Amino acid sequence: MDGHGLYVWMSYLAALLIIFGNYFSVRSLLRKEQKSLSWSADKHSVTDVADEL
Amino acid sequence: MKIKELWHRLGSPRWFFYYSGAWVRFFGVFALILLSVGFVWGLLFAPPEQYQGNSFRIFYIHLPAAILCQSLYLAMGVGGFVLYVWRMKLADILIAACLPLGMSLTVLALFTGAVWGKPTWGTWWEWDGRIVSTTVLLFLYIGIFAIREAISDSELRGKASGLVAMVGMINIPIIKYSVDWWTTLHQPATFTLTEKPAMPIEMWLPALVMVIGFYFFAAHNVLTRMRAEILRREAKTAWVKKLAVKMV
Predict the structure, then answer these.
(1) What is the dihedral of CA B188, B194, B198, B201, to 10 degrees?
(2) In angstroms, rounded to a whole number, what is the distance separating the alpha carbons of residues B221 and A43?
(3) Are the C-beta atoms of B112 and A15 separated by less than 8 Å?
(4) Three-state SS for A52?
(5) Can you tell me the ipTM of this complex?
(6) Please, are residues B88 and B10 in contact by the beta-carbon 8 Å criterion?
(7) Among the CATH numbers 1.10.10, 1.10.287, 3.30.1300, 1.20.120, which is that of B20-234?
(8) What are phi and psi of B151, to 5 degrees?
(9) Chain B: residue whose CA lies nearest to A32
(10) pLDDT per residue as tens digits for the range B50-98
(11) CA–CA distances in Å: residue B215 to residues B28, B34, B118, B170, B220
């Protein structure tokens, strides 16, 4: 790339880092919320069964 | 559906959550396709520029990052306005959702600009109108982030960050017109509404693909963050509990 290869690769790698970083951070955020909600729903269903007993 | 009805529906986190699900998938799929094509095209197949050579390929990252960081800030400013006028919870959620990606794209725009400036202008940094005003944009993003981290009361946090977002919108036209108002190293606008692009189609088409790809990625990212935030804020409501039961 006529001596400019390092600059070009640095830019493209930085872009990939930003894209993947944002994608995975938001995915883990959504999964964390879903996990917390399903744990909470599970806890309530166990509590309901315990109350009936 | 009438516009007024749609507007009021948008104020409902529940309606927004259900409605946005399909859109998230749509934006995600097209972002993946367009960004993959754009990355390969810009890096390997687009022609080098006459004077700058292959360092011009940085343009295919720098341009969409610069455009998007401004668009996301505008979205935050509009969110601030909606929050103040209509007091919609979703407006505060929008501000929170745009913040991380907006900040990271501003850093990317400044970084790629510096990396491109070194072989082109012989310097990593110049006190140029556009570079300085984009750095101010980064400080605005950081300021809003700091406000949101510092204030625990949700209503006050929303209003404070919304106010800064609205006031900071004045920086967006400064970034855009800085190349026209001041003597600058930075090149003038590549694309305008009234004139043909100042480059051949083999060079501007991959740029357009990247810009659209980045916009789709931003839409996917922001909508997903909004959905996660809605689940967190509405966790005690009946509709979220019902949704949680389905997940078990």
Answers:
(1) 140
(2) 31
(3) yes
(4) helix
(5) 0.88
(6) yes
(7) 1.20.120
(8) -100, 125
(9) B228
(10) 888 888 999 999 999 999 999 999 999 999 999 999 999 899 999 999 9
(11) 10, 10, 28, 22, 9
Mutate to test the interface with B, among A2, A8, A38 (most CBs of B within 10 A): A8
Chain Cα centroid distance, residue A50: 34
**Identity of the residue numbered A32:** K
Q: Minimal CA–CA distance to B63: which of B15, B116, B13? A: B116
Helix B171-181 / helix B59-86 crossing angle, nearest 10 deg: 140
Please state the separation of Cα A23 from the chain's center in Å: 7
**Tokens 């306005």 belong to residue:** B81
Distances (CA, A) of B173 to A12, B150, B196: 28, 29, 22
- Do the Cβ atoms of B22 and B220 come closer than 8 Å? no
CA angle centred on B30, ends B28 and B31, rounded to 5° = 65
Q: For chain A, which residues make up each domain, given as ranges?
A: 18-53
Give contacts of B 57-116 with A, CB under 8 A: 57-58, 61-62, 65, 100-101, 104-105, 107-108, 111-112, 115-116
How does pLDDT run across A21-33, given as a tens digit for each residue?
A: 999 999 999 999 8
pTM listed for this prediction: 0.90
Cα B4 from chain centroid (whole Å): 26
Amino acid at B30: F
Q: Taking the domains of chain B in order of start, what are their residue ranges?
A: 20-234
Count of positions (residues) in chain B? 248
| C-alpha to C-alpha distance for B121 and B104, rounded to whole angstroms | 24
Phi, psi at B49, each rounded to 5°: -80, 150
Crossing angle, helix B154-168 and helix B129-150, to 10 degrees? 170
Closest CA to B112 of A39, A51, A26, A4: A4
How distant is the Cα of A14 from the closest Cα of chain B, in angstroms? Answer: 7
CB B157 within 8 A of CB B148: yes
